[in-house]
Amino acid sequence: MRIAIIAHLKYPISEPFAGGLEMHTHMLARSLRERGHDVTLFASTRSDPALGVEAICDETSLLETGIDEANDVAFFREHHAYLGLMTELRSRSFDVIHNNSLHYLPVSMADTLTTPVVTTLHTPPFCWLESGVRLNRGPMIYVAVSEATAEMWGHVAHTDQVIPNGIDLTHFPYQPVANTEPYLVWYGRIVPEKGLDHAIDAARLAGLPLRIAGPISNQSYFDEAIAPRLGGDVQHVGHLSHRELSQLVGGAIAALCTPRWEEPYGLVVAEALACGTPVAAFRRGGVPALLSPDCGVIAEPDDVASLASAALAASVLDRSACRAHAEQYCDAQRMVDEYEALYRQLAVAPVAIANEPDVALPLVANFA
User: Fold this and answer.
1) What's this model's pTM, rounded to 2 decimal places?
2) Nearest to 22 by CA among 215, 274, 223, 285
3) Is the N-terminal amide bond of 16 cis, ω within 30° of 0?
4) Could you give the CA distance from residue 112 to residue 91 in angstroms, rounded to a whole number?
5) pLDDT at 60
6) pLDDT band of 335, cuts 50, 70, 90
7) Shortest CA distance to 196 belongs to which of 231, 232, 227, 233?
8) Are 250 and 175 in contact (CB under 8 A)?
9) Which of 99, 268, 298, 363 makes a 20 to 30 Å CA pair with 291?
10) Burial group, residue 246, by CB count within 10 angstroms (0-12, 13-18, 19+)
């Protein structure tokens, strides 16, 4: 099939990944190409050329720019890039277009295209994307990454299918034994909504060292809430490659997941389980559905004492059960299978599928 994937433009789709969405897009495009499909990825410059990239914009994060006008510059660059792309796609030949961005234009302008469009909902509703969804008047297939995300979008759009995200299990090899010197691990983008400060406080309350990995995506949050907490048994080891990260995560006795928001899926949970590392996580969004009692312990949101207790309880769980759970529920090949099947349905009968409100809805197992 000829498949177009529209990426978001904040960061390049390449390693080291800025976050879960970049990793998801990279893995999906790479896997589809490995299966013989003709994939074109519309993304920002510096994205991995092996993915069939057509660059439509420089990355728009402007992390090094501190002026007030930077947000406007980024907004208009991104707006212009997507506007140009959606106009160009009217004359391009694809069997299906997969909108994997978080921008309103690919959704609101989808009704100008004759090609079937799939939009994956990766986040809870926010004003710009919700506006685009409400303005769309044409057929659109909406896919949510979890049942929790589908429910959050229920007041705006009907979710046709739930396809949980997945990870490349080969990138997160199983480590049957943790490091001899025990430590907890937290990793991800260092931003307020990920709640790293809670993880640090919980690790100290539990009396366990903490290793932190990930990019500093919000400098003021890092300077004000994280840097003063570092030192001693709490270390930030930087933004790591997949290989380095898997070694760090696999060596931990437990991983902490501390979202302050309704986390749509929870890739860090899946990755930790694949390494054999049990998880202690706040009860938020799609995270509880990724865990069962034999591989994780749920803590009450924003409750440091609850998280400290969960971390201690998780640290003694069976590591082989964690890996088995990841193999059964978190494998990326299952995710790609489901997207590929959806693409084929749309390519064969786009109008019938798009207008059918009860397209098969695979359920996400909930073990919470």
Assistant:
1) 0.80
2) 215
3) yes
4) 11
5) 66
6) very high
7) 227
8) yes
9) 99
10) buried
